[in-house]
């Protein structure tokens, strides 16, 4: 009985955390949409390579680049 309550509690906590995480990412991305648009255009034109694109994108979004 107690195990069931713990599992349900963990599922609820994880779901709340995940939804907040998604909302935070959406707000960050929306605030930088113009910069990401320009960066994507530069990448599409071949002005920058993939590694530079990923580095600049992580700089704009404020997320560390995971290699």
Number of helical elements: 3
The biggest beta sheet is recorded as: none
- Helix content percent band: over 70%
Mean pLDDT: 86
What fraction of the residues are assigned to beta strands by DSSP? under 5%
Q: Give the assembly state of these chains.
A: single chain
Please count the beta strands (DSSP E, at least 2 residues each): 0
Radius of gyration: 18 Å
- Structural domains: how many: 2
Structural class estimated from helices and strands: mainly alpha
Spans of at least 5 consecutive residues whose pLDDT stays below 50 are: none
Separation of the first and last Cα atoms: 43 Å
Shape: elongated
Written account of the structure:
The chain is mainly alpha-helical and 67 residues long. It folds into 2 domains: 1-31; 32-62. Helices cover 82% and strands 0% of the residues. The protein has helices at residues 2-31, 33-45, 50-61. Helix 2 packs antiparallel against helix 3 (50-61).
Short description:
This protein has helices at residues 2-31, 33-45, 50-61.
Task: Set down the secondary structure blueprint.
Layout: H1 2-31, H2 33-45, H3 50-61
């Amino acid at each position: 009985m107690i195990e069931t309550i713990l599992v349900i509690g963990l599922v609820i906590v994880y779901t709340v955390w995940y939804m907040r995480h998604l909302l935070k990412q959406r707000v960050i991305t929306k605030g930088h949409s113009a910069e990401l648009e320009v960066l994507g255009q530069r990448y599409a034109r071949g002005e920058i390579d993939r590694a530079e694109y990923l580095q600049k994108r992580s700089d704009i979004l404020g997320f560390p680049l995971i290699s």
